[in-house]
């Protein structure tokens, strides 16, 4: 029997992929990710592609892959893949929503607390001569308890953030393509509101929508102008949903109080103005950036690959 | 009628004290706190002292205050006051536990998340040429979900932290002078353990005990040696409960993974080694450092003063 061939396009912990090596032929780069050109040259032979976040897996690439049956994404967001093209070519696409949910919600809440309570500002400035004013009101942050958390995109991750918000004494409002069931709303005492009302009334705005053609630059100058001057904006979803220059400008002009950002328009580049601002806290697309979670995510991806070829019903297909 | 006189030893928002001005004569400094010498000179006339955190309110000071009836602390921790001496002299001491609880728990949890998920490290290094490795496993943090949170001192603040821990998927263990009721334990599914077991088994250790002669340098080299190399230490209580040099050494030698610190042995000085370390996140005794919370705390203190002279039963006496 010919073993099916899997092309992994960047280094993932080999031990976390151990199960694959039993029944598949796995190509795993030792160091650094493969470039688009390299993948284009290699892909003809492969049955499975673990796509990269550094380039788009598009129709041109799929056209060079007559054997490709599955694109198994390592992550929950799949804006790195032309899913429509894959569907047309009969190629399955899977992602890893289970293991990405809690760590990403965790990171989002870490940024929310850090931005509101000025943890980044304090930590940076205590280490340099500028210092921080220890006085009672000077350099004060804003509180979280009793405030309103507005969640844009109330899927798994949004709800996991809401759970943390409730325990922190926050009121939850949300906007979503579809209103959630009364049952789920009751769990977080969450109120469904329009996109505009959310921006106008939330003290903390967390962006957790999927990146699609409709959510491109969802948050720009107009939306930032709707937000309160005391509000905090958190993005742990995708950078292309935010006009980064407009956000930097709003922060600079103190049109909003602060932001916590994990994702950027041109990763790994960050808008230079953001790097200079005191009222923003930055992390490097680290939603699942823990040893444990990266391995759990690899395992979820592995189970999708194995399950797909065994015809299991619970494979996490996105098409 | 002679109005009672209140000596406030550092600037507190005047509007938050408005109710006092109706029936009391209030001395409120405009800028900067009063020095100990100044308080010693002034105190003879006063009925109420709002003590400072910059110096100890000791028996010598009380001896100069024949009219003093109440020391109304602005804060929950009262290690800045010789309460025994006050008791002997028949002087009441009050604090502000209600309004300090949630903001301090909030700050503790912000530091916990920031230390585990390396928010301070990321934010600092993304802004300088050194940068952060965006690779999958490089510069990774450790997760919170599924981990064990050990709380030393399970009072109001400890429990408010536990509530946030539960919502974040943590298991709660605690050590306390007295074991809590089964009812409270059940609320957080919290397990009572010895001090030693807590240090040995917790992934995150949060110090929330009161500062007393018994808790002085509670955490030193021996205790840090008991902790896991993957553990995170959080202190939002008082700096004198931790041997700061030993903690800096343990962090430098990676005997623990990280720390989040809000309080220090010699505030506002921070041990110089801590200021150089990448695996610590620092804030400036900011447990209640938000505009809203500082005002709420002032109001709680004001109600203690008014209630004390009106003989109300619910004044927050600590002696």
Descriptive account of the structure:
The structure is a homodimer of 319-residue chains. In chain A, strand 3, helix 3 (59-63) and strand 4 form a beta-alpha-beta unit. The first copy, chain A, folds into two domains: 4-98 and 291-310, 3-Layer(aba) Sandwich (Rossmann fold), CATH 3.40.50; 101-282, 3-Layer(aba) Sandwich (Rossmann fold), CATH 3.40.50.720. The longest helix of chain A is centred in the middle third of the chain and has 20 residues, at 97-116. Chain A has 319 residues and is an alpha/beta fold. In chain A, 37% of the residues lie in helices and 14% in strands. In chain A, the strands form two sheets. The first copy, chain A, has a seven-stranded parallel beta sheet, with helices on both faces. The first copy, chain A, has a five-stranded parallel beta sheet with strand order 2-1-3-4-5. The mean pLDDT of chain A is 96. In chain A, helix 5 (97-116) crosses helix 7 (156-167) and helix 5 (97-116) runs antiparallel to helix 13. Chains A and B meet through helix 5, helix 6, helix 7 and helix 13 of A and helix 5, helix 6, helix 7 and helix 13 of B.
